[in-house]
Amino acid sequence: MVNILSLAQQALILSALYALVAVGFTLIFGVGGVLNLSHGASLTLGAFAGHYAAEVYNLGVTGAVLAAILVPALFGALLYLGPIRRVQDEPILVMIMTLVTAVAIESLFLVVEGAGSQTTLVLVDGETPAIAGQAIQFNQLLMFAVSWLLLGLLFLYVNKTDTGRAILATSQDRKGAFLVGIDSSRINLWMWILAGMLAGIAGLFLASYGLGVSPTMGRSPLVLSFAIVVLGGLGSIRGSVLGAYIIGTLEVLTISLVDPRLQGLAPLVVLVAVLLVKPSGLFGQEVHA
Asked: Is Endoplasmic reticulum among the key words of this record (predicted)?
């Protein structure tokens, strides 16, 4: 018999994580007009940084979260200041460079950790008392709460701060933004840093959700990000959140009601359908909340 409460719980938690995965990806495209194919590598870096901090250096949950945020943020900054800034007006070159970087990061971890390595990472243990026969793991509750806290702060940041308004202006008209004194290079750098931070914590959470920490764990989230931001509209934050909940729910229903082996099929089906029916997505293709 299908447990509707269990399905709803899984869909809500997984979709919140998916939204966190996709938002950084859509921010970079919305502001810079380029696709960051190293987004999955940022997730992998965040997961491994959190794992090393918690399991190797015994820094606890706080150390794991800080490491998962700071390491991918530094990676994003160095990537932009190094090769990306020089070719940021050439989307194809940016795609090639970020893809090469992603392959290099994955290869590095394959050498260091081994091809078959997969480490389980749990941030907190235990579960809540059962409500209507359904208990929730504290680990999942923490991920859901922090994911929505970060998404809420991002909404406020983009809409209520001067830097947020500069981000919106740059995404809409880079030349116009320059004329009013906005440094688009500085805004782009901040987007790569912010995207790295969000991707890193998303990688840590995905690893803790049950995927484990592995060198190749960034592949599926990259495809997932494509599907979500195309559905929501490239550059739309609320579109990414809505797209994440649509795809996350479809994913849970597919795994639970059809066949677990079809995991990952729902995002691909949605991606193809949206490209055929409404390529601009639900909310268009500029950064907006």
From this structure: no
